[in-house]
Amino acid sequence: LILPFPSTAITTLAKRGISVSAVITFDFGGGSATTNRVFIVLQQGDFVLLKNTALAAAISSGMTNLSVISDQIWISAGIGSELQGTLAAPIDWSSPQVPEVILNNLSNSANSPATVSWPTAAGVQTQRLTPGDPLELTGIIASGD
Amino acid sequence: MSDNITVSFQNAQLTSSTTSILLQGATYVLQTSNAISLAGTVTFSSFTLFSAAMNFNVTSGTAFNAQVTTPINVTDPSTTPSIEVTNFSGTVQVTWPTPTGSQTQALTSGEPLFLSNIAS
Hints:
Largest interface: A-B, 24 and 24 residues
Shape of chain A: globular
Radius of gyration of chain A: 17 Å
Order of helices and strands of chain A: HEEEEEEEEEEE
Number of helices of chain B: 0
Distance between the termini of chain B: 7 Å
Number of helices of chain A: 1
Strand content of chain A: over 45%
Helix content of chain A: under 10%
Number of strands of chain A: 11
Helix content of chain B: under 10%
Order of helices and strands of chain B: EEEEEEEEEEE
Oligomer: heterodimer
């Protein structure tokens, strides 16, 4: 028995892509908050909560409140306070799209305000974030729960 | 089904280096506009969030003033979800929506509390 597979379904699957998960890590190096809310935006992907892999924040100074929605993480801090610490977050995206991140409202000081690390086939890739500029997580691959 | 609950630590004394907010029959959920939010005097050295567990690593003995507001998804509408907060003494309350208004109850450390009649 051969069931016809409608071309519309094939087109839909291709558009949706394949859902992939990985953990990305932000390392805050002491940049100063330029407003009361420092925030990270994830484009072409979503932050997700998993059973065995945590969204984990260890920010030693500067943070007063923390809020998370599916495509943003907000860190409330006093203006001028320096953020130090790490934030690891599981994300989902639909391959072959490539997610990108934007860091907002940290001063672009001489010491790197923050970096982001993500898994690639060649190992962990770490790049400095420039506030306000999207950074594509090029070559990102899945890392299991 | 998604509902917003609030857990309020009111100057509670933490009795271990980790305090957790655990869900049974429900999961935390990230939404596009309704945040999981920690507010107050958030004095923890690290914070981890899983689909059914939220953990604060703290210095034992820390007085904890924090308000955690989070959407949750009830995983099986035929059962009543419960919440448990561990390793504290003092006052911790949970508030959840019901068809007749908000319900607020005090939590006892380590004892699950059913979120009876929780409503969207």
